[in-house]
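User: Modeling request: complex.
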Amino acid sequence: MDHLIFENFSKHITLSDSEKSYVSSLLSEKNVLKKEVLLRQGQTCNKFFFVEKGSLQAFNINEDGKESTIMFALSDWWITDMDSFVNQTTSNLTIAALEDSKLIELDFANLQILYKELPVFERFFRILFQNAYIREQRRALYNISMTTEERYLQFVKKYPAMVEKITQKQIASYLGVTPEFLSSIKKKSAS
Amino acid sequence: MDHLIFENFSKHITLSDSEKSYVSSLLSEKNVLKKEVLLRQGQTCNKFFFVEKGSLQAFNINEDGKESTIMFALSDWWITDMDSFVNQTTSNLTIAALEDSKLIELDFANLQILYKELPVFERFFRILFQNAYIREQRRALYNISMTTEERYLQFVKKYPAMVEKITQKQIASYLGVTPEFLSSIKKKSAS
DNA sequence: CGTCTATTTGAATGTACTCAAAAGCGGTGG
DNA sequence: CCACCGCTTTTGAGTACATTCAAATAGACG
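Assistant: Request completed. Predicted assembly structure:
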């Protein structure tokens, strides 16, 4: 079926050919256009997305209309509203394509089957969530301990490929500041 | 061996008596006094702690001496510097006891054995990390989208048992603001 | 080419920090 | 059991960081 997702699996687990084809039967491919919405805030999320090609953004819009970006996902990343997905509750997030993208979808029911039939996926997602947890914990530390300028420079340094694809307004929404303020930081930071 | 940790395991997995006693052999008990340090920033963390009784704090101190709290752990919580623990790298965090506490330690090598001998622990920690990830992702959203006052009220509402045990200075270090500013928020918020 | 959105700029305002000093509180030793 | 000590909390003045609003400029896209 697909290359990249099986390479992704193989980072942490080994699958036989027959297992691979079984896994394939639980996955489905989806092509989306730029700006297409995959999950809308308020819905229940029942898909776990893997980005084969392209990029996605997961963001929240609050009562005042302010947009806050939770994460961006490039090729080879997994993304979903984990809270909504695992607890099957109403989502706080909207997930949309930043560009034309090719995704692999794993839906909630199929993931439960996968855990049951191929327990090695417990291990795979254990490691995936472990890394996600580490990333988010690090982000929490940065958010509470660094200045906005430091966090901006850090973001650019850490995710250069992301910076290529997104606007400054979107970086601002990831950092939790206004686009105007980010603009003034950039100016100051360049001098 | 211990009650609470096996109740904690049983939230997500089922263990036979013989499995329980095997698991016990990989765990060790540790009693610590108030202010005792379990992990010091700069060391490599090789223990995963479960709090049977008492409470812990994990925090970072930056170059300027500013303290930032990553998490507090009460009874029935797991805590470690996950980054340092799983990647066996130098820790950015110090973990210390907020009061006399009783802990269960699972060390890095034993956890690898546990994954191998009882793969059901892959599932257990998959769910644990999944929940930890959800919590941290939610925290990231709060950090970038809410005012400090909202985050303070939220913290108090969400972790009332924690608030009992910690100082306002520590809450401030979790929220990423100065104690002086938190004091002024409380005053304003009370009126 | 025209339209829409992103980015920049600046002034005014509000949020949060720094520093310093006073008040409150808890623990310890006498 | 009280007095003292150290740390936390409060208060306030001055400064720095960040937002809001408005307007001008620049880019992206059909």
